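Input sequence (711 aa), recorded before submission:
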Amino acid sequence: MAATTKKRSAESQSGPEPKKAKKTDVATRKLETAKKAKRSIPVTVTSFPANDTGDSEDEDEFDDAEDDVDFDDQAVDDDTMKIDSGEVEGKTSARESHIAQKVLQQSRKAAKPHSDLISEAKRVWALARSQSISAKERKKHIVELMNVVRGKVKLIVFKHDASRIIQTLVKHGGKSERVEICEELEGSYAESAKNRYAKFLILKLIRLLPSHRTNIISSFHGEILSRSRLLLHREASGVLADAFELYANSAQRAGMVREFYGKEVALFSQKQQDDQEKGQKGLVGVLETLGSDKEKKARVLAAVKENLASVFNNPDKGAVRHAIVHCATWEYLDVLGTMQDHGNADEMKEAEKMRRDLFENCTELLPEMVHTKDGSRVAREFLARGSAKDRKTILKTLKPHIERMCLDDEAQMVLFTAMDVIDDTKLIQKSVTSIITTSETLNTLIESPQGRRAILYLLLPRSRRFFTIAQIRALGDTDNARDGVGLGSKQGSEEGGTITGEGTSKKSPEVRQEEVRRGASEALLKWVEERGAELVREAAEGLVVGDIILYTEGDKTSAFQALLKALATPYPSPDISSSTSHLLDLPYASRLYKTLLQGGHFNHYLKSVETGSNWNPTAFAVDFVKIVGGDDGAVIKDICTKGKRNGSFVVAQLCGALVREDASFDKDSVKEAREKLKEWLSTSETRKAIEEGAKDGAKGIKVLLDGIGKL
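Predicted structure, token format:
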């Protein structure tokens, strides 16, 4: 007979209670308003590992929930249960084993240092971190928690659960609590940064306590590359990276980078702190301070070279991807470039040797560097000053990451410079263009501003319509090395005038751009043929489609006919949503077709149209009449006479394109299209319907009538 078991009756479940309104104190609101910054992500990874940076309290908030629960309090009432006699022995032994394990666990916890302190702190911590309490209640619990740990922060901060307790105090406490904790930790910031758990507390203090930020960052001086070697420490390097990239000001960053200059500069700088202006100029400023002492300069450069080598020779430490390393590397390369451009023969030879050594050290690591401003500049300098073999090596290293680089503001600048300086455009086509212009990659790139810039650079490099002045200037930084233009040295020119030497590239920029454009054209036009009708329904995507049509080379007939077929639908559309409405009812789409018919974009400064280099608007106009108009011109007439008449400007431009003289196109085809259009729009009935649009407030009616009159 089966055993009968009496179970406790379950409580009624009427569904979850409604969520309480979330109440937050002033400090928490400020925290939510100022979202925590994130440092830039290398193109070799999609996101940072969980232990690299972030908030350990948020990540592991409930990891120790069971540690706070006393299972022994949930005693089992044996009298309320009837258990089959055959199961008594097994159940009893299991229960006794559980009790024994619990006793052992508690005895181990009690044996640990500061167990009573941590136990009491965790009790109050559970109340203080609750998300369902008022600001007043939270403040009360924070004060109580601070009283529990006061004077003992340094004793418990290295334990994983206790560290999160202190983080809660910093996160939800006021300035007084943060200052008190910071002062208790003074003298052990570097040690805390190396701890797997305490490092998150140091980051919180740097982020949330600006008044003590300078002291914390200054405490790292002398520890970054010597003594503790924090930069090469698995845990501490992330703290340095965040401090440098996200929170330090220019003076603090300069002080951190100064660690790369060697011990001699560190001692020297302590005696020359009044010269702050030169100190903030980085390595260049330090060398200026040394004056004409060539031996000291050589020792400083040797120290920088050695320290950079220690980073590049230990890529598994993760320091290679940090902005502080990229900044030091660029300062070093910048000095070497100046020596090559302005030095005497011996200095030029020595600088080239040092640049070559650095290149060989970090070539394979360039993908880890291109995501920061300085790291990108380093890669671009290697491209600009490198030989054809060097450039090929760089592209081979970057090739697996091309798509990810296109989506990064700084990394894409490396690809743009490669297109600007590499004469072997077949190599560009094979290693860069062929990857960017695959359908899958284009579909990804078109969705972001960075990706759209990468597409457009193939056709319109450094165009002011798509690239900011700052971006164009940054891209121009490598032009002198490419073209062999620089300032003369004392030996080359006593007056310091501009001289032109042997550049690292032979082709003219115009020829190189034309070859890159030609290599990308076929794939881009094929993509427009496949997706153009869909893309022109979006403003930014439509601009890219328009410029592909205007500036690519080759047969564009299939591509622009795909755009015209999208117009050959009844007007007006019964559905006014942007996904199904007629294209001419979308202002940006209407402007696109008008631009194609007029031959290019209108330059407001020059007050004229900048015609596309490889575009024939007459051919587009003839096919417009043939495809959109059909046999009876119904759609074209409806565009001008029904609905909001949003096609008036487009049809007016169509008339202008057909009356414009074009010796390169078949005159008979143009004449036939012009006569068809005139026949459709010049009837009294159609003209009357067009004129009535002016009474309804439609725009472009006068322009349209003038255009019809020219047919």
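Checked by second reader. Residues 254 and 280 are 6 Å apart (CA to CA).
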